[in-house]
Design a protein that fits this description.
Elements (H helix, E strand, L loop, with lengths): L5 H10 L3 E4 L6 E4 L4 E4 L1 H8 L7 E4 L16 E4 L2 H10 L9 H13 L1 H7 L2 E4 L4 H13 L4
Parallel strand pairs: 1-4, 5-6
Antiparallel strand pairs: 2-3
Length: 149
């Protein structure tokens, strides 16, 4: 959800040597008339996930076709926080203008009510995003360091 600290967490994870991709950045999504919204560019994401081995990869973003890739991820993490926390962060942030207009805040609150419960049902880990960023990053990094097999 907007305002949970995804971008900040990705920045810190990259400083720790992990690979990160924010799919809100250009070239990762495209408009879909059939989905009435943005979706991941499946070719680009499939190529990314098939890429070289190395440090754990963190992919951030929320789109309607993300479930098609869940089997390719070790964990599906939901960062969550109450509406008042999200709106306060969005109001105070200077790195992203999304959420500043009343219409965008309405969309954020609607997504929180309608989309977050769907994400909660499909996530494997939920992290309370009210915690300090360092705690969130520590928890995410631990997931990336966990043995897989």
């Amino acid at each position: 959800m907007s305002g949970t600290g995804k971008s900040s967490a990705l920045l810190e994870l990259s400083k720790l040597g992990f690979r990160v991709v924010d799919t809100d950045e250009p070239d990762w999504t495209e408009w879909s008339d059939s989905e009435a919204g943005y979706v991941w560019r499946e070719d680009r994401l499939a190529e990314l996930l098939a890429g070289e081995a190395g440090p754990s990869l963190y992919v951030s973003g929320t789109v309607s076709n993300q479930g098609r890739f869940y089997s390719r991820f070790d964990e599906i993490v939901l960062l969550s926080a109450p509406a008042e926390v999200l709106l306060r962060r969005i109001e105070n942030r200077t790195t992203n203008s999304y959420g500043k207009s009343p219409q965008q805040r309405e969309v954020i609150l609607r997504d929180l009510a309608e989309v977050e419960p769907l994400l909660r049902r499909t996530c494997t880990v939920e992290i309370d995003a009210r915690q300090p960023l360092t705690n969130i990053v520590d928890q995410l990094a631990e997931l990336g360091r966990a043995p897989r097999g």
